[in-house]
Structure formats: C-alpha cells, structure tokens
Amino acid sequence: MKTIGLIGGMSWESTVGYYQIVNTVIKEKLGGLHSAKCVLYSVDFQEIEVCQANGEWEKSGEILSEAALSLERAGADFIVICTNTMHKVAEQIGRKIAIPILHIAEVTADELTEQKIQRVGLLGTKYTMEQDFYKEKLIERGIEVVVPEEADRTIVNDTIYQELCLGIIKEESREKFLAIIEKLKKNGAQGVILGCTEIGMLVKQEDTDTPLFDTTLIHARRAALYAID
Questions:
Q1: Which of 8, 9, 46, 97 is the residue whose CA sits 20 to 30 A from 165?
Q2: Omega into 11 within 30° of 0, i.e. cis?
C-alpha cells in the first residue's frame, strides 16, 4: 500500500471528510482491519486565506510546498491537496517535490468523462469559479464549464468562507445553493461540481435530482484506490 500525503486544514472541517473517506474505501476494498497508510500536514487556514485575499499566491504556494516536502520526508508516496482552490499553486508545489500530486480537477474530469457529462456547472470559491486554473483542466478534456451569475457567485463564496469553513450549516443557505444549482441546470448543465471541499457538508445528492459531483468524495476515493493500485 502506498502512503498518502494529505495537505489539509483548508479548512479542517473538510479534511475530516478526507480521512474518513480514504479509510472507508480501504476497508471496503481490503477488508479485515485494513486502514489507509497516510500522513497529514494540517496548515493554519487563516494564514492561507490572507494570502488568497491579498493575491499572494506565490507566498501561499511556498507554504504548501514546505508542507509537501515535509510529507515527502515523512514517507508519503504521493500528495493530495485537500482543497480545490489551492490547486492554483499545484504546479509550484510539484516543482519542489519528487513525488506526484493527485490533482483534484483531473480526477473530477475522469469522473465526469466516465459519466458522459459534456457540460457541467461549477460551484466553488470565487477563485475557482472565476479563474482558469481549475476550469482549464476540464476544458482540456472536452468538458464545457458553466458558472453562476455574479450575484450567485458572491452568495456561494460568502457562504463558503463565512459559514462552511467555520462548520456552520444553515438551511437557508442550502436553499440558496439548490436554487443556484437549478439555474445551472436550466443553463444546460448536465451535472454540477461541488468544487469546494466544504460544499458537500451543505448540499447532498438526496437534495436534488441534478447529478452532483462532490470533489471531496471523488478526490479522497481516488486517492485510496491509487494507494492500493
């Protein structure tokens, strides 16, 4: 079994899900008392968020590169960055280490391709929805990406940072997200990516008939499978 190197804490609320999912998948696949071999480096999200807000992406990349190097030294065979947004600096991190990074957008694209999704809605932080670093990974695979209108992007982003990253779950926010998902569906989306690792805490597949692609679940599951492949 390969050792998974998890860079977590962004936020720790969703990192909990990663740990649970990778171990659940290993248990399902190997049985008995098997669990995942993993090493976790949990960063201080406040420090990262300040870098995001100030546009200091290179500085945040340096912080996460140090985390990745620590995991590599600790015996990790590959890296899992437990957040969508910070894959903006995945290439910077990759240049500092000798082990591979399991990219969240790439494994999500794999899932979409397997499900024959050609046009998909994307929810996430404003950085993920508005910048190209994430969407381009999907577009390269021939998948068309649609994002909410500006007012709805603000709702999604504010809910992530002001509620979900703090572990706050509000029914009114769930209803707003479901309305935004419905708009994306009307705009031709065959499914919607929950492109922030906290969104799955708020919206689940049973809440809507629109196919949802929870990146936390996809990424963590693929990591577990990669570890035992």
A1: 97
A2: yes
